[in-house]
Amino acid sequence: MSYKVVKFGGSSLADANQFKKVAAIIKSDDKRRFVVPSAPGKRFSDDIKVTDMLYKCCELAGSGVDFSEDLQMIKDRYNGIISELGMDMSLDDEFATIEHELKARPAKDYAASRGEYLNGKVLAKYLGFNFVDAADVIVFNNKGVLLLDDTVKAVRERIKGLDNAVIPGFYGKTTEGFIKTFSRGGSDVTGSIIANAVRAEIYENWTDVSGFLVADPRIVDHPDVIETITYRELRELAYMGASVLHEDAIFPVRSAGIPINIRNTNAPEDAGTMIVSNDYDFSRESLGHTITGIAGKKGFSSINIEKAMMNNEHGFGMKVLKVLYDNGLSFEHMPSGIDTMSITLETAKLDPVRDKVIAELRREVEPDHIEIEDGLAILAVVGRRMKNTRGTVARVFAAMAHARINVKLIDQGSSELNVIIGVSENDLPEAIRRIYDMFINSEKQ
Ligand code: ADP
Ligand code: ASP
Ligand code: MG
Questions:
Q1: pLDDT of 280 over the 80 cut
Q2: Would you say the CB of residue 168 lies under 6 angstroms from ligand 2?
Q3: What confidence tens digit (pLDDT) does each residue in 164-204 have?
Q4: Nearest ligand, CA of residue 9?
Q5: Are 297 and 377 in contact (CB under 8 A)?
Q6: How many angstroms separate the alpha carbon of residue 389 from the centre of ligand 2?
């Protein structure tokens, strides 16, 4: 029998009512046998995620400050869920262990991992499923790098003979025996690994939106849901800050040819977004906009260099890049003219070495003029169909011109999967809205 691996995010498991929805979703499809939960997330917008509460306990413990009140608040959240679900279960022993551990060795990753661990325990009991501790199956080397092959082997070994399991997200254990977490949002990665290990027919990632949206809902009002997106398109958008799914969640399923389906726990009837590989049969799709999605992020700077006859100077670009390399900097884009060259890079990375880099560039390439422009945002318009559609770049420019937004940089990747433009940070939201209008709203009319 083929299985579905289902991962539920923090908001999907934030309280007892959400647990009920999750159980109904799981029970409605017999293939949903392997479940990866996050820790309880926010119940309302200024609520605090259990993960953040745990980080705080650890910080207090580390500075020798009493954290019993904070730990009690976490206990209350779980006890609230347990009692509202009418379950007969006590986490007292678990909390005693956590308190003892944090006092003895306040390790950040251990602390944070307890959110998923405890939620997994509660969910397993509520569903009547087996509990498999992620520490027993998700393996990291002692530098904290995931060992995928060892992990897949350990998962298969551990679940042999089990026809269901709840495996908490977000953490595993190093070969030296320390609990280690992925970066924030990492339960997505666990789900993807489990899907790979059980050769799932699909990896369902259940969250609080009805799929991957064409643009960030905080910028565009009620954006359309993307029906189908390729892994490559998703990666471009995720890199630009569209953060529905952890970046590292793509590789384990992609390599095994398993599609991801983003679904909404609060609207299980919605089909959500299918994330698929390039060879998917796209003729099944009902919609077909030129672009798939738009995302952007702030916090970039541009180093602008001018020098007469730059193009004739042998090794000019190499010298510039060597200075960046020597200072541990990587760059995002490098548009250039005959006598000018600009390098776009993250302001936060540039800041600590800003003066040094300018001084070294002056010395190495003796420019006529050099300056740094801060306050830039980069925006990616992504779509697999752009390649076969003429005039996409012209439409992006037209949208910017109508809004009187100055385009400071433009770059089209050789794959023609995306068009990148740089604008002033203040213009970013409006630029995204204008592009959305140009490609989504106007194509509907
Ligand atoms: P979970 O807790 O289920 O893992 P996340 O908070 O990590 O959920 O991701 C879902 C959130 O991502 C949404 O609630 C939404 O606010 C945000 N988001 C940002 N960009 C997008 C986008 N393009 N499409 C959908 N959601 C987006
Ligand atoms: N609970 C963790 C976090 O808040 C992991 C996750 O939700 O995926 O980052
Ligand atoms: Mg998430």
A1: no
A2: no
A3: 999 999 999 999 999 999 999 999 999 999 999 999 999 99
A4: 1
A5: yes
A6: 39
Q: How confident is the model at residue 154 (pLDDT cuts 50, 70, 90)?
A: very high
Task: Give the pLDDT score at 287.
Answer: 60
CA of 371 to the centre of ligand 2 (A): 40
**Tokens 């609207």, located at residue:** 267
Residue 237 CA: nearest ligand 1 atom is 23
| Nearest listed ligand to the Cα of residue 183 | 2
Ligand 1 interacting residues, C-beta cut-off 6 A: 9-12, 38, 41, 185, 207-209, 212-213, 215-217, 242-244
What pLDDT is attached to residue 203?
98
> How far is Cα 151 from Cα 194, in angstroms, rounded to an integer?
9
Average pLDDT, the chain: 94
Ligand 1 atom with least separation from CA of 12:
3
120 lines ligand 2 (CB under 6 A): no
The structure's pTM equals 0.87
Give CA–CA dist 72/84, Å, rounded: 18
User: Is residue 235 scored above 90 in pLDDT?
Assistant: no
Ordered structural domains, the chain, with CATH? 4-209+244-255 (3.40.1160.10), 293-444 (3.30.2130.10)
**pLDDT per position as a tens digit, 129-138:** 999 999 999 9
